[in-house]
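Researcher: Next entry in the queue.
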Amino acid sequence: MSSQTGESGPRAADPRGSWRAVIDIGTNSVLLLVARWGERDLEVALDQATITRLGKGVAATGVLAPESIWRTLAVLQDYRVTAEQYGARPLAVTTEGVRLAKNRDEFLTLAAGVLGSPVRLLSGAEEAELSFRSVAQETGSTGPLRVLDIGGGSTELAVGEGPRLISSVSHRIGAVRLHERFVKHDPPEPAEVVDMEIEALDTFRRDQPLEAFPVLHGLAGTVTTAAALLLELPKYDRERVDGSTFTAAQIRELRDRLAQETVEERCRRPALDPARADVIVAGLTILVAAMQHCGATSLVVRDRGLRYALIERD
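Model: Structure for this entry, 314 residues:
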């Protein structure tokens, strides 16, 4: 269930103690970034993702399931050990799946005990702003910028000008959330896919009216997986994925093709993490709807996320 998107193994702790570690505890995945700022650029030592499905069922039940909590805590323990090998104490944040849960305090207490420091529960607005900043600092653009972050429990769409965030909305649609609500068959029936797309598009249009703009920057697992599949990579390669560009038609065609496959068939695709195979159609459907809503004909893929905006400078 783990995918490595940085270098393959930990380095010795830097004697300057300048490595920073950020853990992003999402609804579907838990991510660890170890990095530090150089004179100009961010130097990445490790960028790792493990799918634990912490938010499985939370939208329906209102609680984090015990087995999901314990899976996530085990990963957090491993991440803490890894961070300490770099001389870093991890800064941990969490998002929509935990925001929804009635037992979030129980999870946050347990996670803090494992990590040795509190976990920061981000608001939807904070989540959107950090995602936007992570892309803005990479592009260096001074013009219009739109950033989409598809998570398991929510999707953030942020609009800005260069590094300045103008507006953002955290939408209560996510890959896990839509899959659990709409998909009852394997492969999904065409009507289930249509219903997901209508729900996503209606949500965007109702909560965040926008004028058309041709370019949308996308990040997080759904988007980077789409890029890896469209590039036909034998395994995930962040250097090839980051900055890759695709048309709206390519994204829709990929969604439609995967929607005709069973989960077992999708698992045979080398660039698709088997733990993501069940929810990838729902995630891509959100992406299809977002591009339509934004009037975007082009998707720029970013192998980044809000964790990158949390790496502090010395």
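Model: The chain has twelve helices and twelve strands.
Researcher: Noted, moving on.
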